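Researcher: Let's try something more involved. This one mixes different molecule types, so please make sure each is placed in the same coordinate frame as the others.
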Amino acid sequence: MKVEGNHFRSIWFDEESKAVNIIDQRVLPHEFKIISLDTLKDFEIAIKHMAVRGAPLIGATAAFGMACQMRRDPSDECINISWERLHRTRPTAINLKWALDRCRTELLKTQEKTRAEISMELAKKIANEDVEINRNIGIHGLNIIQEIARRKSSSEPVRLLTHCNAGWLATVDWGTATSPMFQAHENGVPIHVWVDETRPRNQGALTSWELQNYGISHNYITDNAGGHLMQHGLVDMIIVGTDRTTSCGDVCNKIGTYLKALAAKDNGVPFYVALPSPTIDWTVRNGVEEIPIEERVETEVSWIHGLDKSGRVTKVKVTPDGSLGFNPAFDVTPAKLVTGLITERGVCDASESGLRALFPDLEKVSL
Amino acid sequence: MKVEGNHFRSIWFDEESKAVNIIDQRVLPHEFKIISLDTLKDFEIAIKHMAVRGAPLIGATAAFGMACQMRRDPSDECINISWERLHRTRPTAINLKWALDRCRTELLKTQEKTRAEISMELAKKIANEDVEINRNIGIHGLNIIQEIARRKSSSEPVRLLTHCNAGWLATVDWGTATSPMFQAHENGVPIHVWVDETRPRNQGALTSWELQNYGISHNYITDNAGGHLMQHGLVDMIIVGTDRTTSCGDVCNKIGTYLKALAAKDNGVPFYVALPSPTIDWTVRNGVEEIPIEERVETEVSWIHGLDKSGRVTKVKVTPDGSLGFNPAFDVTPAKLVTGLITERGVCDASESGLRALFPDLEKVSL
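Model: All components are placed in one shared frame. Result:
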């Protein structure tokens, strides 16, 4: 998508320098900084420390990481070590495993001397597929937004609420939850977006920055505010992303998503989850019981990053000495709270039958 | 309560200097600073800018504000102007109106020359009553905690979750939601407190600071985390305060309380509200429809206060340029989500009949 008028993806292979470039999301929205990744360590740190983040982008990044390793050592052993090391960077998003499995399976079928080239082509293919998937999610989501718009008076925007950043920064391009927003904006459907701050890492600032770059009307709100807005009829629809969706439609997403889903249910607000099919974990049924929830360092809670008065990126401690934070990074929204899943193939119920009907081919492959 | 071993109230009249002192809560927990209030403007600013905050403390502060004015001008006109100016500082907490009404009613019955003395005695009485009310809330709340403790294995703490600061800093002493915690601690019942950060103003840091001063086990968590903890059986009971409770038991409290109540309901976690009777608004039935919700400046959302690396209190901006925050300060938790109300007279259902049974005298006085 565009940054001050120029088109960017969140990750790309630079054909001239032969480097994999990313936008460092640790300093966004305050600084726009591009960094190059080369070694396996570079990729591990980028994922673990969240220079790249978002389930689809993590998957693509892992594929590029594998490709860079193949340039150095195309052995079976290196494939397996790379799989292990990249896989353990973050435990919750299933796209990481999906991309790594795909790379390993493909590469083990090929001769060593061809692996450097094949793996880089595969990484690019995974990235390109992600872009196309998300564009299609946007088109299907747009239909829902247009339907809501038709029921409103012409001057009134459709008011959407989103949690975390399931924007183009969380994918290779377009985003998942934001793709319908960008599509609505391009198609002249007036929208206003309530952007959840999403503590502790304030990914709402990334979503705000994306929307701001397109001039889409929005407000940055605390994670506490959404329930009140829904009680007062100020939210027409919620769209969030997901890091892992079970075969029964439970949705694991950024911590706090579950609370918004509860409020949506209580107030009759439709709650949609936008997801590319690689986010479906066909091997898991009950999200609350089965999905491992990453627990991150407590300093992400006790220290907050931002710009100081002189415009420097810095951090401040919000807790008193001796009080420790506790920092689970995701929660699970049970399928019963989800109005529908917006996928690249269309919208379905958050249920086993809903997902099976849309993805009969994938289910068989994965089980 | 105690600060590093020394006893403090959150507001007190210094007999020597004849000044009203408060603890400046804008810089807590990073700095412990006492300031004196004298003019009506001092009191207005202290309440409006939240140097003092919390429904019971706001009420007591307004009473002291009226008393200080009576020293300067004990006229009926001054009583009415002071009532108006103090009343408009914050719209949601009903204790403010309750205390001001009580002062005005008493003072208008007396001769001008006696008003300075009477009003100061009344302010002290309101403050002392608040302390006694909260101590009793603690005793009734302790019963519930002890009951939960009896059902657990002996080594396991009762895990409480609270939102915002309904601690001694929000009252004159003891706190409302924290009073049962302090009582449990004093009575040797092991507890662990999950402290909601409570964006935008992070009053969770105040609650953490209070607990830290007593060595009570706790973790500071983001407002997003509570639902996940409840899904995994890590919360035994929620206790929050309230800024206004309707005659039917709807509870208006800090923004985000409603979301925790929904999660409590969904997970079978008891959700209690601790309240002194002056927080009941007998004239209001439906909280969502009738209680005015304060909307505060957007900079409270976009800028966050804390300590920088060199230990200075400063603030950082978390939003990108051009993205504005939206900042409703309270929400309403419908009575149906509330397990019980813990008052100074005991615990009752969050319902008209529950409140009527405990407070037949008050209801008649107020209607």
